[in-house]
UniProtKB/TrEMBL annotation:
<protein>
    <recommendedName>
        <fullName>arginine--tRNA ligase</fullName>
        <ecNumber>6.1.1.19</ecNumber>
    </recommendedName>
</protein>
<keyword id="KW-0547">Nucleotide-binding</keyword>
<keyword id="KW-0067">ATP-binding</keyword>
<dbReference type="GO" id="GO:0005737">
    <property type="term" value="C:cytoplasm"/>
</dbReference>
<dbReference type="GO" id="GO:0006420">
    <property type="term" value="P:arginyl-tRNA aminoacylation"/>
</dbReference>
<keyword id="KW-0030">Aminoacyl-tRNA synthetase</keyword>
<dbReference type="InterPro" id="IPR005148">
    <property type="entry name" value="Arg-tRNA-synth_N"/>
</dbReference>
<keyword id="KW-0436">Ligase</keyword>
<dbReference type="Pfam" id="PF05746">
    <property type="entry name" value="DALR_1"/>
</dbReference>
<feature type="domain" description="DALR anticodon binding">
    <location>
        <begin position="237"/>
        <end position="373"/>
    </location>
</feature>
<dbReference type="Pfam" id="PF03485">
    <property type="entry name" value="Arg_tRNA_synt_N"/>
</dbReference>
<dbReference type="InterPro" id="IPR008909">
    <property type="entry name" value="DALR_anticod-bd"/>
</dbReference>
<dbReference type="InterPro" id="IPR009080">
    <property type="entry name" value="tRNAsynth_Ia_anticodon-bd"/>
</dbReference>
<feature type="domain" description="Arginyl tRNA synthetase N-terminal">
    <location>
        <begin position="4"/>
        <end position="92"/>
    </location>
</feature>
<dbReference type="GO" id="GO:0004814">
    <property type="term" value="F:arginine-tRNA ligase activity"/>
</dbReference>
<dbReference type="InterPro" id="IPR036695">
    <property type="entry name" value="Arg-tRNA-synth_N_sf"/>
</dbReference>
<dbReference type="GO" id="GO:0005524">
    <property type="term" value="F:ATP binding"/>
</dbReference>
């Protein structure tokens, strides 16, 4: 069970409790689940009972105890423990591997992974000045809002513009000076302007330089964004994607493809003679939390970026994904005379899932995700 699936399960439990009259609250649009904090237990936890307590007129622990039986009965959940003032802690079934489920989910959804309906039916009128950073931020916001079911138009002083997507690029069309409020909720986008023209950096580095900083921070228009080294966050993100694609090509040459499963040879159904296995290089054990959390957090980050009109949140999370994945990529392909195994297929599937997230996020920022770098 993935965090997204667990969140939906918790929402369903809240909805059932409301329908049966045990809780009198408005069912929230979404529930956040995360790793347990201090004093918690299990794989995941949520504070939904604390969030609903005031509206329900009940102590948080009482709300948690109302939800607990419904959650224990759900498929994939082995136990639910209430800790602290009312945190719900989940222990998933032993046969369930959250990371494998997550990889399968990303593979099934492709670059639509993380898309949802948090802003379904909402129309935003983004009012921006005629300034390069504001234009680029507005373009990215239009893309990101669309992933959550919303729609955005761009308003300028003296007129209106709509942003349409063709061939992966956005085109701004200017219209007459009709009132902005007629076209949706009015939102002022006025990030700190760029100190100089970013065009000399090229389209990708220029967009990154304008989108990566928070809107209240002054962007740096410097050649640092072009340096092909680890100190450059844009390089790390694009390099991680290119490395994943390179590993896929290498695996094809070795005759194997990605398939979700256990990441470690001891757990997987490996092939080879006992003599070979005794002398084969042992890949380091891969611990799920280091890779699971950045990938499973992507839908939440995407929703937050859309809700707060903050593409910088997406840009910074892509750096987090890249930094978590890059050390792992060294153990994807067989080493030396080692033969491809089920573990290698599983590692490749995880790497490709990370590549899908990186490519999808870069695309929303309007930045190319290279196959080679």
């Amino acid at each position: 069970m993935t965090p997204v699936e667990l969140s939906r399960t918790v929402l369903h439990a809240v909805r059932c409790a409301v329908d049966e009259g045990q809780l009198s609250v408005a069912v929230p649009e979404r529930v956040v689940v995360s790793e347990p904090g201090a004093g918690g237990c299990g794989e995941y936890a949520t504070n939904v009972a604390l969030q609903l307590a005031r509206a329900a007129g009940k102590p948080p622990r009482t709300v948690a105890e109302i939800l607990r039986p419904r959650l224990i009965a759900a498929d994939g959940i082995e136990d639910v423990v209430v800790t602290g003032p009312g945190f719900l802690n989940f222990r998933l079934g032993q046969e369930v591997d959250p990371l494998q489920d997550l990889v399968r989910e990303i593979r099934a959804q492709g670059q639509r992974y993380g898309h949802g309906d948090a802003l379904a039916g909402q129309v935003l009128a983004l009012r921006v000045p005629y300034e390069v950073r504001a234009e680029v931020v507005a373009d990215a916001v239009v893309r990101i809002v669309a992933t959550q079911g919303g729609r955005a138009t761009v308003e300028h002083q003296g007129g209106r513009a709509t942003v349409e997507h063709q061939g992966g690029r956005a085109t701004v069309q200017h219209h007459g000076g009709r009132a902005a409020a007629e076209h949706g909720e009015l939102v002022d986008l006025r990030p700190v302007p760029a100190p100089e023209d970013p065009a000399p950096l090229g389209p990708d580095a220029a967009r990154w330089a304008l989108l990566h900083p928070a809107p209240h921070d002054r962007p740096r228009i410097t050649a640092d964004h072009l340096v092909q080294r680890e100190g450059n966050p844009l390089f790390r993100v694009r390099y991680a994607h290119a490395r994943v694609r390179s590993l896929g090509r290498g695996a094809a040459r070795l005759g194997f493809a990605a398939e979700p499963g256990p990441l470690n040879s001891a757990e997987a159904d490996t092939a080879g003679t006992p003599a070979f296995q005794a002398h084969a290089p042992q890949a380091p054990a891969v611990h799920a939390p280091a890779l699971h959390t950045p990938l499973s957090d992507y839908p939440r980050i995407l929703t937050a970026a859309a809700t707060h009109r903050a593409p910088d949140r997406l840009a910074r999370h892509l750096v987090t994904v890249a930094d978590a994945v890059l050390p792992f990529l060294t153990c994807v392909l067989p080493i030396g005379e080692e033969k491809p195994s089920a573990a290698h297929r599983a590692r490749l599937a995880l790497a490709e899932a990370a590549g899908t997230v990186l490519a999808g996020g870069l695309s929303l920022l309007g930045i190319d995700a290279p196959e080679h770098l």
